[in-house]
TrEMBL record, chain B:
One of its GO terms (cellular component) is cytoplasm. IGPS catalyzes the conversion of PRFAR and glutamine to IGP, AICAR and glutamate. The HisH subunit catalyzes the hydrolysis of glutamine to glutamate and ammonia as part of the synthesis of IGP and AICAR. The resulting ammonia molecule is channeled to the active site of HisF. The active site is at C80, H178, E180. The gene is hisH. Gene3D superfamilies: 3.40.50.880. This is Imidazole glycerol phosphate synthase subunit HisH. It catalyses: L-glutamine + H2O = L-glutamate + NH4(+); 5-[(5-phospho-1-deoxy-D-ribulos-1-ylimino)methylamino]-1-(5-phospho-beta-D-ribosyl)imidazole-4-carboxamide + L-glutamine = D-erythro-1-(imidazol-4-yl)glycerol 3-phosphate + 5-amino-1-(5-phospho-beta-D-ribosyl)imidazole-4-carboxamide + L-glutamate + H(+).
Length: 242, 196
């Protein structure tokens, strides 16, 4: 769930945000539907006030009996402490880790690698995968694969990879790149960006070798229902919790 | 649900909120405390834990809780790192632990991705804490170290190697998975613990 001012939103290629509903209500709905994990990204946090986030995290965590990851605007171990105290199980970090990679090792040492998810937004420019910041607004010149290897060495526990080329397109996940990432590191890689139909999920587990798949709008707008998706994946011999 | 005094041991090793909220959803408000008297007088004790083992043992030491926990007489439930700290020792930071379960905690080999993170099925279930749980049901795991199978194993799981998903010895119960994050299956397990 991409969250702004306590509501879930999902952008098409990260602009033209549409409102997809109340965050607390949706969180409880997805847990009941059989979602395996909930990821909460405060997408505007890096450049807008984020006071409401902690309260919202607390409200959601009270309702939720599945793993809960929170990200957006996290730049210090103190930020992480506050979110974990509010009931988050993991945090995802992005821009702050690129600006200060040592944040990854500081967090891993203080809270354990298991709660440090490194989120990375990347775009394929002239055949090279480059890391982008601030929801895709800022180019860094950093190579995706080098960055992910470094993040793993520093103690990241999971990689949440969003392809900016695929996000919002509903044409499927960036499977070739995902497979390369997944084989390169020894930590779980979560596929994000591009889900449009159920086949796309099967493809990202099989071809993309993803350890998990993340989607937002197809669920928010009920184009795909979680129970139906899981049944479908099971018929494709992909192990899922039903 | 039985009204009772459940105390969550607070030793600054993370993830206490999730456990607290899980009991609140069952209509019980647990006390979060590091006070020895409060812990000793609880009907039931939860020993949670997330983080690094040597750091967590240090934290137990600083809070003077190392002798207290193995001496508790009421049902105690260790969760995740809590379970590992109830063992003899762990390879994580070469740490001597509380010694309730006679086994050393080992690190997973890198044959597959480590940590073992995600939902996995339980097997060889032996009642009690796990009453009513079927082998096909899933619980949520996040760990890089594991407890090998021992006599006290009351549920096993398989990732890289078969390992202990839950343990029991006398009044001491422990699970490697997170019941507070394991959906309806986790709820059943927490209810079983409350009803012990």
């Amino acid at each position: 769930m991409d969250v702004k001012d306590g509501r879930t939103v999902k952008g098409v290629n990260f602009v033209d945000l549409r409102d997809a509903g109340d965050a607390v209500e949706l969180a409880a709905y997805y847990a009941e539907q059989g979602a395996d994990e909930l990821v909460f990204l405060d997408i505007t946090a890096t450049h807008e006030k984020r006071k409401t986030l902690v309260e919202l995290v607390q409200k959601v965590a009270r309702e939720l009996n599945i793993p809960f990851t929170v990200g957006g605007g996290i730049s210090t171990p103190e930020d992480v402490g506050v979110l974990l105290n509010a009931g988050a199980d993991k945090v995802s970090i992005n821009s702050a880790a690129v600006r200060n990679p040592q944040l990854i090792s500081d967090l891993a040492k203080r809270f354990g690698s298991q709660c440090v998810v490194l989120a990375v937004d990347a775009k394929c420019v002239d055949g090279n995968w480059e890391v982008f910041l601030n929801g895709g607004r800022l180019s860094t010149g950093i190579d995706l694969f080098e960055w992910i290897l470094k993040a793993e060495q520093l103690g990241a526990g999971e990689i949440l990879f969003t392809s900016m080329n695929h996000d919002g397109t509903k044409n499927g996940f960036a499977n070739e790149t995902l497979a390369k990432l997944s084989e390169m590191v020894n930590i779980p890689v979560i596929a994000s960006g591009g889900a449009g139909n159920m086949e796309h999920f099967a493809d990202t587990f099989i071809e993309g070798k993803a350890d998990a798949a993340l989607a937002a709008s197809v669920f928010h707008f009920k184009e795909i229902e979680v129970p139906e998706l899981k049944k479908y994946l099971k018929t494709k011999n992909i192990p899922v919790r039903i | 649900m039985k009204k009772q005094n459940i105390v969550i041991i607070d030793y600054d090793a993370g993830n206490i909120q999730s456990v607290k909220y899980a009991f609140e959803r069952l209509g019980i408000t647990p006390i979060v405390s590091k006070d020895k008297e409060v812990i000793r007088n609880a009907d039931k004790v939860i020993f949670p834990g997330v983080g690094e083992a040597s750091w967590a043992m240090n934290s137990l030491k600083e809070n003077d809780l190392i002798d207290l926990i193995p001496d508790l007489k009421q049902p105690v439930l260790g969760i995740c790192l809590g379970m590992q700290l109830m063992c003899e020792s762990t390879e994580e930071g070469n740490t001597k632990a509380l010694g309730i379960f006679p086994v050393s905690v080992k690190r997973f080999s890198n044959e597959q991705k480590v940590p073992h993170m995600g939902w996995n099925q339980l097997d060889d279930l032996k009642g009690g804490l796990l009453n009513g749980i079927k082998p096909s049901e899933f619980t949520y795991f996040v760990h890089s170290y594991y407890v090998p199978l021992i006599e006290e194993t009351i549920a096993s799981c398989d990732y890289i190697v078969p390992f202990s998903a839950a343990l029991q010895k006398d009044n001491f119960y422990a699970c490697q998975f997170h019941p507070e994050k394991s959906g309806d299956v986790g709820v059943k397990i927490l209810k079983n613990f409350i009803n012990l």
